[in-house]
Amino acid sequence: DGELSAAFVLGSQLYVARERSISRWTFLADPAVDGGVFRAANRGCLNFRMFCLFDGQAALMDTEGVYLFNGGTVDPASRLIQNYFRPGKIHWQQSEWFHAQVYEAEETARFFVCLSGSDFPRHAFCYHYRQGKWWIEEYATPMSAATTALHC
C-alpha cells in the first residue's frame, strides 16, 4: 500500500491514507488499550496535499483519478476527465508538487497537477461539487501552493 501519504478527520473519525488505501483509526477510551486500525477504502491519496474536505466528505486524487469519500463509500468523481489519467498525460514523477484546494465560495475543488511534462503544477482539474461539472484551468506561471483566507 505504500507509505503514509495523508491524514484527515471526517466526523469523529481519523482516516490515514496511503498511496493505494485508506484506513480508519479508532478507539473507545484509550488508544493504547482499545485502539484499532481498519481498512476503509481500496483507493488512496498521492500525497499529504492532494485532498480537500467539503460537505462532510473528502475529495482525493490517486493515480486512478479523483474520488469522493464519505467514510464509508467511494464515489469515482472524475469520469468526465478520465482521459487525463491514461499514460503520458500527467507527469507523475512530479507528484510531490501536486496539491488540492477547496474554494467554498465557488463550490469548487481544484487539483493542481503537472501536465505536458511541466516540472511544477500549471494546470488544475476543477470540480464544481454541487453541479458535478469538470473543467481544466491552465496558468501562466506554476502554482506551487494554494490556500484559502477566511473572513473574520
Written overview of the protein:
With 152 residues, the protein is mostly beta strands. Helix content is 3%, strand content 43%. The chain is built from one helix and twelve strands, in the order E-E-E-H-E-E-E-E-E-E-E-E-E. It has one helix at 31-34, and strands at 4-10, 13-18, 22-26, 36-41, 51-54, 57-62, 65-69, 74-76, 99-103, 108-113, 123-128, 133-138. The protein has a four-stranded antiparallel beta sheet, with no helix packed on it. It has a four-stranded antiparallel beta sheet with strand order 5-6-7-8, with no helix packed on it. A four-stranded antiparallel beta sheet has the order 9-10-11-12, with no helix packed on it. A hairpin with a 2-residue loop joins strand 1 and strand 2 (13-18).
Q: How would you summarize the topology of this molecule?
A:
Layout: E1 4-10, E2 13-18, E3 22-26, H1 31-34, E4 36-41, E5 51-54, E6 57-62, E7 65-69, E8 74-76, E9 99-103, E10 108-113, E11 123-128, E12 133-138
Antiparallel strand pairs: 1-2, 2-3, 3-4, 5-6, 6-7, 7-8, 9-10, 10-11, 11-12
Descriptive terms for the model:
4-stranded antiparallel sheet, 152 residues, 3% helix, mainly beta, globular, single chain
Quick synopsis:
The protein is an all-beta fold.
Strand arrangement in the largest pleated sheet: 1-2-3-4
Name the shape in a single word: globular
Q: What structural class do the secondary elements suggest?
A: mainly beta
Percentage of residues in helical conformation: under 10%
Low-confidence stretches: none
